[in-house]
Automatic annotation (TrEMBL):
Gene3D superfamilies hit by this protein: NAD(P)-binding Rossmann-like Domain
Any one annotated GO CC term: cytoplasm
Name under which the protein is recorded: NAD-dependent epimerase/dehydratase
Source domain of life: Bacteria
């Protein structure tokens, strides 16, 4: 399996060893592609890792798969659970699917956390920058009031508020557009000539950096609260499309806008995430997409 090395692994492991903590189990709820990459990083740091999902047999070692469905009763958490990462993906982009996955699923997860005796594990919720509305190209950070422009974004914000009510010590990581191995939609659109080369601002993060950020916030004991997970360079979509076209030896598309209800027009700041000591393997879209085009990394099912 070819993967990028664990970022911050040595410092995180050393810090926990110095603190005399006994590493227990990390449970990743909704352990898909992103959760698997995060789980592998926790395993490298010395944790036992359980991945809860409908098809646990798809998970690679050393992650232990556990069959679980957010639509019903969840299994009991292991007695030595220290961390719960909630990182599912809704099966479709509808309000009903988002409510079932992110809102009701998170509530069931927190019920399972509450039912576990002893010291409660830390909880990290993987959310989305879709909770922000259109900022007309202005900068946005964790202090910006979220005003979702879509019904699904409103559900995500409700899930965040649920976590804050029940676990004020929890962490929320709002990720922007994740790309990487197996996430090649824009590359495919450039190849087929269907990519929109508009002037709106887009914010992105490579899958490996998103997974590393999840592990980093937990392993380094970053302060509770909300973090934005994006790379260093908000950029016009036209620049990304032109870059990909040149890298693939294709004609650069002319300007062509396509309305989108998802991306918003905003520049997202990663300053708070970086202030914790996090360092990106792919600090901008050029480094990240070159890696994808070169076929580096591996997508997990």
């Amino acid at each position: 399996m070819i993967r990028c090395p664990l970022r911050n692994k040595a410092s995180a492991a050393e810090r926990w060893a110095d603190m005399g903590k006994v590493r227990g189990t990390v449970v990743i709820i909704g352990c898909g592609d992103l959760g698997t990459e995060a789980g592998l990083r926790f395993a490298e740091a010395g944790y036992q890792v359980q991945g809860w999902r409908r098809r646990p047999a798809l998970l690679p070692a050393p992650i232990t798969g556990v069959r679980a469905d957010l639509g019903g009763a969840l299994p009991e958490l292991p007695a030595d659970t220290q961390v719960v990462v909630f990182a599912p993906a809704a099966p479709e982009r509808s309000v009903a699917a988002y409510e079932a996955t992110y809102l009701h699923g998170l509530a069931r997860t927190l019920d399972a956390v509450d039912a576990r005796p002893g010291e409660p594990p830390s909880v990290l919720l993987v959310s989305s920058t879709a909770v922000y509305g259109d900022a007309y190209g202005a900068w946005v950070d964790e202090g910006t009031t979220p005003v979702p422009s879509t019904p699904t974004g409103q559900v995500l914000l409700q899930a965040e508020e649920l976590l804050r009510r029940r676990r004020p010590d929890g962490r929320i990581l709002r990720l922007a557009g994740i790309y990487g191995p197996g996430r090649t939609r824009l590359i495919d659109q450039v190849r087929t000539g269907t990519a929109a080369a508009g002037a709106s601002i887009t914010n992105r993060i490579h899958r490996d950096d998103a997974a590393a950020a999840i592990a980093h916030l937990v392993l380094t004991g970053a302060p509770p609260g909300t973090y934005i997970g994006v790379d260093d360079e908000p950029v016009e979509m036209s620049d990304v499309v032109a870059f990909l076209a040149r890298e693939m030896g294709l004609p650069v598309p002319g300007p062509r806008e396509r309305e989108s209800s998802r991306g918003g027009n905003r520049r997202l700041s990663n300053a708070r995430l970086r202030s914790t000591g996090f360092r990106f393997a792919y600090p901008d879209y050029r480094a990240g997409y070159r890696s994808v085009l070169a076929g580096q990394g591996q997508r997990h099912p």
